[in-house]
Amino acid sequence: MHSSLGTDAKLSRRVLQDRLFKLILVGVALGVVLLLTTIIGFVIQQGISVINWSFFTHLPQPPGASHSGILNAILGTLMLTVLASLISIPVGIWCGVAMAEHPLHPLVKWAQVSVDGIQSIPSILFGIMAYLWVVVPMGQFSAVSGAVALSMIMLPIVIRAVEEAVRRVPTTMREASLALGVSPFRTTIKVVIPCALNGILTGSLLGVSRISGETAPLLFTAFGSPFLVISIFQPVQSMPILIYNYATSPYADWQQIGWGASLVLILFCFVLSVGTRWVFKR
Question: Per the count of CB atoms within 10 A, which of 29, 156, 201, 270 is most buried?
Answer without folding.
Answer: 156
